[in-house]
Amino acid sequence: MAQTAAVKRMQKVAYRRPRNHVIIEPGGMTAYGKRSSWYPTSGFIFAYDSADLLTLAERVLALAADTEPEHRMDAIFVLNQGVIHWGSDMTHYLS
Prior knowledge:
The chain has about 100 residues and is α+β, with helices and mostly antiparallel strands. The protein has one domain. The chain has 2 helices and 5 strands; from the N terminus they run H-E-E-E-H-E-E. It has helices at about 1-10, 55-65, and strands spanning about 30, 35, 45, 75-80, 80-85. It has a 3-stranded mixed beta sheet with strand order 3-4-5, with no helix packed on it. A two-stranded antiparallel ribbon has the order 1-2.
């Protein structure tokens, strides 16, 4: 979780503004409840197997408690079990 947060906090120096405003609204976009001129970095974990998803989700929630939503892991894909990702309100629950 800490490594993902560190990458997401990095300055966006290589970012190129999109020309297509279908993807990004004029004047920027809203993500994680904040307005920005760039699309935020996504953080994903891919695994073949893990503890059961409920146990994993509880652990992720505990680790995320001290991390701003825009710096958290966005989704965890456990190939033989399923996917854990944030619901529409990223501060309170995982789906």
